Amino acid sequence: MTAQIIDGKALSAQLRTEVAARAAALKAKSGITPGLAVILVGDNQASQVYVRNKVKACEEAGFHSVLEKYDAAMTEAELLARVEALNNDPTIHGILVQLPLPKHIDDHKVIETISPAKDVDGFHVASAGALMVGEVGFKACTPYGCMRMLESIGMKDLRGKHAVVIGRSNIVGKPMAMMLLAANATVTITHSGTADLGAMTRQADVVVAAVGKRNVLTRDMVKPGAVVIDVGMNRDDDGKLCGDVDYEGVRQVAGWITPVPGGVGPMTITMLLVNTMESAERAANA
């Protein structure tokens, strides 16, 4: 048995088409164009690529996008002032400050300055709290994308399923666990302090690997027929992009698997568009 592929590119294209239609409908009805502001401080090469992709995706969906690039010497106070100005700009519905920031700027302080109503990355404490207690808020884009991938294969309600999350980051691991819990899964969070990772993953109907470490999940650690979502972004010995999962080995056992590249990656930016669209719709109905 070879696992079926969950195609993030195809699902992403479908969702982006839906978002573009929603944006056009909102503009026709209320004159409002969804607006996303992206702030990039410094010259991190990977960040520049991510930001370029986000701006391009916005334009393709018919959004109004603003890209603000600043020198690495920008002060924390200057950045916070820019965020506050965007909070008060009615044409902007989502604010994204690309991480990592230069060392002299406190990431947490910057994220907390973004209005929760415009926190389309879903990183604000208010967004995390809303997810925790089941209130309306913005969901962190990567785990949100993973949930949409599960839905696409008919796994919207995970009642009776055991889901294991590998990783406990605030950006993926923790919100992923909360979203799986909200979908009625029984959830186990594993991490570097877990004594026997394989003992946990072999029980799982769904495994989400999100630690940024190659081959953290191998064939012998997967229950036959399980769904494996690979959030990792690493490089193999030949410099090729790979995930956290031993893809060739695990696909011989799993029922479904996400590839890297072409799996979770495209979904992250797509869910950013979905969140921005929701923010614009809320603003129109306010």
List the helices and strands and how they pair.
Elements: E1 4-5, H1 8-30, E2 35-41, H2 45-60, E3 64-70, H3 76-87, E4 94-97, H4 107-113, H5 125-133, H6 141-152, E5 162-166, H7 173-182, E6 186-190, H8 197-201, E7 206-209, E8 227-230, E9 234-235, E10 241-242, H9 247-250, E11 256-257, H10 264-285
Parallel strand pairs: 1-11, 2-3, 2-4, 5-6, 5-7, 7-8, 8-11
Antiparallel strand pairs: 9-10
Helix pairs in contact: 1-10, 2-10, 6-7, 6-10
What tags apply to this protein structure?
Rossmann fold, 286 residues, alpha/beta, 15% strand, 2 domains, 10 helices, 3-stranded parallel β-sheet, 6-stranded parallel β-sheet
What would you note in describing this structure?
It contains 10 helices and 11 strands. It has helices at residues 8-30, 45-60, 76-87, 107-113, 125-133, 141-152, 173-182, 197-201, 247-250, 264-285; strands at residues 4-5, 35-41, 64-70, 94-97, 162-166, 186-190, 206-209, 227-230, 234-235, 241-242, 256-257. The radius of gyration is 19 Å and the shape is globular. The chain has a 6-stranded parallel β-sheet with strand order 1-11-8-7-5-6. It has a 3-stranded parallel β-sheet with strand order 3-2-4, sandwiched between helices. α6 packs across α7 and α6 crosses α10. The termini are far apart. The protein folds into 2 domains: 31-115, Leucine Dehydrogenase, chain A, domain 1 (Rossmann fold); 141-264, 3-Layer(aba) Sandwich (Rossmann fold), CATH 3.40.50. Helix content is 42%, strand content 15%. The chain has 286 residues and is an alpha/beta fold.
